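Hi team,

Filling in the usual template for the complex we talked about on Friday. All components are listed, including any nucleic acid strands or ligand strings, so the model treats them as one assembly.

SUBMITTER: L.P.
PURPOSE: interface mapping
COMPONENTS: two
RESIDUES: 784
SEQUENCES:
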Amino acid sequence: MLFTSITFVIFFCLFFLLYWFIFNRGLKLQNLLLLVGNYLFYAWWDWRFLSLLIASSILNYFLGISIYNSKQEKRRSFLLWIGLLQGLGTLLFFKYFNFFVKSIAAAFIAFNIKLDIYTLNIILPLGISFYTFRTLSYLLDIKHGKIKPSTDWVVFFCYVSFFPCVISGPIDRPKTLIPQLEKLRTFNYAQATDALRQILWGLFKKIVIADNCAAFTNDIFEHYQTLPASSLLFGAFLSLIQVYADFSGYSDIAIGLSNLIGFKITRNFDTPFFARNIADFWRRWHISLTSWLTDYVFTPLTIYFRDLEKTGLILAILINFTAIGIWHGANWTFILFGFLNGCYYIPLILRGTLNKKKKIATDRLLPELPALLNMAGTFILIMFTFILFRADSLAQAFDYYHRLFSHSLFMAPVIIEKVNTAATLVCILIMFAAEWLQRDKQHALQIDFIKNFPARAIIYYGLILIILTFTATRNSDFIYFKF
Amino acid sequence: MKGTVKFIFKTLLFVLPVLLIFEVLFRLGYSPIITNSTLFDLKVIRLQKQHNKHLKVISIGSSVSLYELNSNIIVHNLHVPYYNFASWGLQISDMRVLLNCFVNDYHPRYVIIGSSIGDFISPSNDTYLNYVNTNTFIRNEFPEIFYFKNYSSIHQIIRRKHTAFPVQFDSWGGALLTIKAKDINRDKWNEHGIFPTQYTADQYRELDSLGAWLNTQHVKLIFAQAPIKASYANTAVSRQILQRHFDQCQSIIEKHGGTYLNYYNPAIFTDSLFFDQYHLQAAGGVVFTRLLVSDLKKIIK
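RESULT (copied from the run log):
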């Protein structure tokens, strides 16, 4: 049930009507319907893994209460470890088992020892990385006294399986979502209309920009050995735009859907391409993941390495970013992607400018030249790391880099579908322009400040017409589903 | 509650013009993309507008059935409600899938497959499932739904209409292939397609399943082997391959109570009647249909 499918539209319309007209009489009723909706949505993908989601919810629910009620610190730590082992163990098994086995075997081959390796045909349960991180933060926050455990099992189960976010985030923290689940939601007209705008913007990014870019990048990465370097550069550019439009489009839809049923959830992207350095970029990209790792990995590491001063900070950053890479998938390309992004931080740490936040001026129509150059530089650095993100293997990525830096970089790129390419580039420009102009807003289509209704309607219908006219030939899955 | 109702009402009001765009497209003849076969999509949309409820005889097949079964001759000689569902490139497995819904929708008593070896050479086309797996009522009364099911952009819809190979259907779904000698592509004329292929055995199995299923539905299957150009079987090996194919089809069809008719006859169907190795020109189609009709008269009651 993709958010962009007719099945989901029917599901959500029915859910919306039941939620606001029949099950709105009490909190219990509202939450019960939400839980049924969550499980129906999840089971639609693969009902076999619903049991895993439920089992994980049951265990973490009781662990949360036990940790809170325990007086002894040792027992609290022990219970937390059970939760961590269950969450990370399940994640490691489903996501990384084959990768570890193959990597170990490859390492032994380097010493001329051939292992008889045994891998399993494991299907990755959808959204496992996302809901595992939710349960982990729940237990960690209870252990550290930041929150109290939920005593209503329906509330907790809804928190773990909240359908707008269960498959690809944002990874909401318990202190954001659980209090909202403990209060009866009432319909807010302004919030709902803004939700529709955000969904519309998300659809534009996903089905027009991301899906059209996907067609080009698939083609370029498949035939990169026969194309000039200029085409490879174009492919790298489109590949980064695709990931952004796909994931931020998904996040916009997820946030919009949550708003429609009365929830306010974490923002996941904050115009990352206007970041002026790498630290700024990662503060704006996949915010819910980076802030999660900052709180639960990076901050403890900086405390642990504090005696090493700058070296300690560099170590903490490198470990944190390698973790971000590993989180994305069981492939050396992701690990190197994370590590390389961590390396980009080293000059900032050495210069002592890591925490200097450069605010984007909101009162200017165009950025100043130095700011623009910083943005372009950051974009290019990130674009090169996303070749690793997109490549199937390290060998392919290195070959791609090798071919990219050749004299054919100055040749005209090979473009087969000229009309489609031009249309996609125009849509990318529209996205950049809208996000720049609306950079101080929650999303680019937050245009309720335009009081003239016909003017707003022209913008909405214009965007709808672009979506209807230039939707990509093939609707692809959201990229982050596989994480 | 008031706020929710207002929200729903305003949203519906806002969505209405968007739906109207598609209704306008539909009325202007920019049909939705249902499958990856332009011709099939055109045909089913056209059929929907004709509001046929009951057909006694239907025919199905690939381009051979489409071009070579002359609807006028069939209808004026058999005097029965008839429609030709043939479409370019249909394989036996596709016919099996499509007949499943055509038989349920139109309750025919006879199904004619005008076949050639080209119906046994490729894998199934899964895009037909988009049509078949749609609710019958929606499929027949509200085909606009296909604009939204597996959405295709307006850009694609318009481009498809303007780049499609033009076909003039007659009132019963058939079409005539009238290409002047000077326009016939010499390469196409001499092309000797590969047969059998890796898919041929699967297609025989599908024919077997189709025959058995039609039998359970009390629908008589009439399998008409269409003429093939003499030069196709100019070696002993190709003659042997053809004969094996004929025998295989005959045994499958007759096993399930169907009728097997073979019109492979180079003496009657001379080279001048063909467009390429397998397709007859309109004049050849007339000869073929007349022969077929004279046999059908003995079968169809």
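MY TAKE: The interface with chain A takes residues 1, 3-4, 6-7, 11, 14, 17-18, 21, 148-149, 151-156 of chain B (CB under 8 Å). Chain B has a mean pLDDT of 89.

Thanks, L.
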